[in-house]
Amino acid sequence: MGEFTGNFVEKKITNDDRLSLKNVQNIYFKNVGSRTVMIGQFKLRAEQEKHIHTGNTTIDQISLDISFISGLGDKNELYVHYIKIPDCQCS
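^ thats the sequence. predicted structure below, dont judge the formating
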């Protein structure tokens, strides 16, 4: 099995979106806004963070729906970073 070199990716998401996790490792989310956000099936309130530790396992063709919940707060801002493995032939 070969060793892959990944790229560190940072994003700021401010609207409802879909995040592809294809060829991604070690994902980190932090809600830096004031509105609660749903990431897949889990809820992240303001200032909360979530790590998805995958180690050397690379995720294959999964997407997470990201949606901001209306209610208290007026700022949609989700910080995301992960490692993208560009040439991975995941199976």
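The longest strand covers residues 24-31.
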